[in-house]
Structure formats: C-alpha cells, structure tokens
Amino acid sequence: MHPDNVQNFFRTLIKDAIDHRQKNNIVRPDYIQHLLDVRTGTLQSEEPTELTCDDITAQALDFFYGGFYSTTNLMVFCIYELAVNPLVQQRLRREIDETFMENDGMINYNTLIRMKYFDTVISETLRKWPTTWLDRKSRKPIVIAPEKDGEKNIELESGSICWIPAFAIHRDPKYWPDPEKFNPERFSEENRSKIKSHTFLSFGAGGRNCI
Description:
There is one protein chain. The strands form two sheets. This protein has a two-stranded antiparallel sheet with strand order 1-4. A two-stranded antiparallel ribbon has the order 2-3. It folds into two domains: 1-83, no CATH class; 85-133 and 167-211, no CATH class. The radius of gyration is 21 Å and the shape is globular. By secondary structure, the chain is mainly alpha-helical. It has helices spanning 4-24, 31-40, 53-84, 86-102, 109-112, 116-128, 166-170, and strands at residues 135-137, 142-144, 154-156, 161-163.
C-alpha cells in the first residue's frame, strides 16, 4: 500500500525509537509507549499481545496519515489566530524565545511539554476551530431521554451513525463564555478544571477518544 522506501523509513524509525527506550528505560505518555504497553500487557486488564515491530510500524503509519490533515488545519487556524491576536502572539513568542535560550537553541520533547502557554494556545485553537469530524456508530439500540418536557425520545437503531456537532458545542455560550473570543486562558492550569466534561471534543471523549 505504501512505497517500500516509506515503509523502510518508518520501520527503521520505530525500531530505533523502541531500542532507545528499552536500552535507557525511557517511558513517555505517547502512542508508541501505548503500543509497547499493549505488547507487554502492562495496561490495566490487558493480556500481553503479540505485536511485532512491523505491527507497531503499521499502526504508526496509520496514525501519521490520519493526523496529517487535522494537524495541517490546526497549524493554519493557529497562525490565523496569532495574526489577529498580537498580544497572544507576543506572549507565546516570549515563551518560545525563553525556552530556546534555556536549552541552547534546541527544542525537544521534554522542553516542548513544559511550554504551558503554548499548550493553552493549541487547545484554544482546537476549541474554536475543531479540525476534524466526530462520529460514532451505535452498537445496540439506544433510547435517549429528552431533557425538556414535551420533547420526544431519540431512538437509535443498532448500526446508526451519529455525528456530534463539536463546532457548535465549542461555541455554545452555555459552556464557553464569550465563545467567539480567542482566549487561551480558558485552558490554563487554574481554569482547565472548570471546563464542563464532554464540552471540549477536539479529540473526542470517553474510553475511545482519539489517542
């Protein structure tokens, strides 16, 4: 399905990453670690699963291609918001410049995850501009009770496809005050806990949300 040179590139990349982590006892909260945990059975209630390096490479390729479109959209909308919100842009630039200075001009995984304001900017971009669709398939008949008097039940047959309007939920003033405003502070450490569950759906929600 993919050219041999592409498969070989990813196979070598994944193998080197796995070897480096195992040799140096490195554990990170990312997709490769999740697959390694599946292979060793270290996830809660999981039995060890026979996953070869090729299996993990295939999953990584699927993850890469699946995230290409959404990541591109995220970058475009983030650049737009930074352009029309110069104060946010200036604060983010200061954080990036400080991080560069503290790490001799290098940015790696460990320094990236310490950039707190950068994380809030990305999250707020995803709130205001969800980059992909969100759907689910009903595996059994479900009846959703109405919230208000006089409304009817919503009945879903097994196999029904449901589209969740993330864009509308993300801009609902009932959940997000002044929703049209680009405000990264919504996702600061102080405010993140105030976000109502299942109202930020850029990565889905629940046990089968996006990895």
